[in-house]
Write a structure and sequence with these properties.
- With 171 residues, the chain is an alpha+beta fold.
- It has one domain: Sandwich (Jelly Rolls), CATH 2.60.120.650.
- The protein is built from three helices and eleven strands; from the N terminus they run αβαββαββββββββ.
- The strands form two sheets. Strands 1-9-6-11-4-3-2 form a seven-stranded antiparallel beta sheet, covered by helices on one side. A four-stranded antiparallel beta sheet has the order 5-10-7-8, with no helix packed on it.
- Strand 2 and strand 3 form a beta hairpin.
Length: 171
């Protein structure tokens, strides 16, 4: 995983931070993997469909997947320790995916979010001091601080890991 000093400093200062090629992912993240995660972890993965009322499109979420794949646990531990987050029982990783190209609603998260592209192309439009678009592909990452308005624009079918930390950074 690659973060330079400027990127670390930017995240510590709660600035939206884009990291091209954050991690080299060898595993093929596809919809067969999603299906397997659902089958093998029925007790600790919760799903929900986020429905767009206008177009009846769905963005699906697998909740609480931090312990399902070793790389998810590694990402979580790396970011947790590097930025010295205060532990919170709600800290976790969720997988968001969509089967078609579509646009999500603008929203703010109450937690600090690190988003890692696993498959496909997603543009994150972030509305902080300026409006900026960040293209996330496999292995890219974006940090979006809590309470910063943003939306996801799925250019292709996509899978992303969303690592959320509710506690404050101590580092």
């Amino acid at each position: 995983m690659l973060l330079n000093k400027e990127q670390i400093h930017s995240i510590q200062n709660k600035k939206t931070t884009y990291v091209k090629n954050f991690v080299s992912l060898e595993r093929e993240y596809d919809f067969n993997l999603i299906s397997n995660l659902l089958e093998e972890n029925t007790d600790n993965i919760f799903t929900r469909a986020l429905t767009d009322r206008e177009h009846l499109k769905h963005i699906y979420v697998l909740k609480n997947v931090v312990n399902t794949l070793k790389e998810f646990k590694f990402f979580f531990d790396f970011l947790f320790k590097l930025f010295k987050f205060k532990p919170n029982p709600k800290d976790d990783i969720d997988i968001y995916f969509s089967l078609i190209s579509q646009v999500g609603y603008p929203h703010k998260d109450i937690e600090n979010v690190f988003i890692i592209g696993l498959k496909g192309k997603t543009v994150y439009r972030v509305f902080d001091e300026d409006t900026n678009n960040y293209e996330i592909n496999k292995g890219d990452m974006i940090f979006i601080p809590s309470n910063v308005k943003h939306k996801a624009i799925g250019i292709t079918p996509r899978i992303i890991a969303s690592i959320g930390f509710y506690g404050e950074m101590n580092g």
